[in-house]
What does this fold into?
Amino acid sequence: MTVVLAYIGIGANLGDPLATLQAAIDDCRAIECTHLAAVSSLYRSAPIESSGPDYVNGVVAVETSLSPLELLGRLQQIEARHGRLRPHRNAPRSLDLDILMYGRQIIDLPDLSVPHPRMHVRAFVLLPLLELDPRLEIPGRGMAEQWLSLVTDQQIERLPA
It folds into this structure.
């Protein structure tokens, strides 16, 4: 049984995002064959290519023996329990859980693209990722820190612990 380090983006902008994200972190901790390895700080940022209230985002690192699609299925079950609807692309959300990275793998399937295709141009992903691993390398994209200059125009605020 191979164990892989995966990074999961967590975010919400409907309801009580802080409470939802805390519950989602606990839900991630309970996924079978998965160990919650680390949790970043949470960050508030304005929606990008979307509307609605500000988002609260962070990143969790998990060590898992689930396959990428099995992990995705568990994350989608958690989203559904928190009332996630998908009326249209970039709609406001009660909870969003995205597999950002799954080990060093590059995955291009109809339901899953890893590394996440826009993670390197989103401050709300890069800052919490780099908090967890300042030397993180994104497969196919290089060092995560090299992308920070592209997101300096995105307003983001680290929330108190």
